[in-house]
Design goal:
The complex is a heterodimer of chains A (114) and B (112).
Chain A lengths: L3 E4 L2 E4 L5 E7 L5 E8 L3 E10 L2 E4 L7 E6 L2 E6 L8 E8 L9 E2 L3 E5 L1
Chain B lengths: L3 E2 L4 E5 L4 E7 L6 E7 L6 E7 L4 E4 L2 E6 L4 E6 L8 E8 L7 E2 L3 E6 L1
Parallel strand pairs in B: 2-11
Antiparallel strand pairs in B: 1-3, 3-8, 4-5, 4-9, 6-7, 7-8, 9-10, 9-11
Classes of the chains: A mainly beta (114), B mainly beta (112).
Chain lengths: 114, 112
């Protein structure tokens, strides 16, 4: 079974709709992240959480909100979706700082806003 | 302004030859660097990393070189294999355990 799962894997929605992307992990990590990937821009950080009571904005948080329901669950919401939020979204986790600084990514959610 | 840049969006290499992927950064405070590989329909997976106290780190066919004075790092894959065909992202952080800043990615195609 995958350590980091994301649902849904694909979603098409209309402008103005509210949508939630969900992330679950079984790695036991405290830290979780949401990124979006756009062609040529790599992965940009939307929000991150170092534990259940800690939520922080990333580079591009406008238009997004998050909820950390438990250590294992981190959800990303688009309150009113717009076409330029069409992108590939990734959730990631990491352990307390260790030597490698490695983050573990989910398989991604492809979101299309029409 | 992007602090981490991968100026080649794509690279094509013949199987068995060397692949060299490049990455430049502008923030002199970055001192930890990572490479990730991404296949279609999958999330990025960690490949190799390097701390600024080193200038080279090897792991099998993969070697990362760091030139701090030039703010440049490169990933060498020798020999390249068709299964290496993927998008490669470099990432940097101010210290190990801090936030990662990613480059735009380079799509590597290894031809049989």
């Amino acid at each position: 079974d995958a350590d980091v799962t994301q649902t849904p894997r694909n979603r098409i929605t209309k402008t103005g709709k509210r949508i939630m992307l969900e992330c679950s992990q079984t790695k036991g990590h405290d830290r979780m992240y949401w990124y979006r990937q756009d062609p040529g821009l790599g992965l940009r950080l939307i929000y991150y959480s170092f534990d259940v009571k800690d939520i922080n904005k990333g580079e591009i948080s406008d238009g997004y909100s998050v909820s950390r329901q438990a250590q294992a669950k981190f959800s990303l919401s688009l309150e009113s979706a717009i076409p330029n939020q069409t992108a590939l979204y990734f959730c990631a986790t990491s352990d307390f700082p260790s030597g490698s600084n490695e983050q573990y990514f989910g398989p991604g959610t492809r979101l299309t806003v029409t | 302004d992007q602090q981490v840049k991968q100026n080649s969006p794509s690279l094509s290499v013949q199987e068995g030859r060397i692949s060299i992927l490049n990455c430049d950064y502008t923030n002199s405070m970055f001192d930890y660097f990572l490479w990730y590989k991404k296949y279609p329909a999958e999330g990025p997976t960690f490949l190799i990393s390097i701390s600024s106290i080193k200038d080279k780190n090897e792991d099998g066919r993969f070697t990362v070189f760091l030139n701090k004075s030039a703010k440049h790092l490169s990933l060498h894959i020798v020999p390249s294999q068709p299964g290496d065909s993927a998008v490669y992202f470099c990432a940097a952080s101010v210290w190990a355990g801090n936030m990662l800043t990613f480059g735009g990615g380079t799509r590597l195609m290894v031809k049989p």
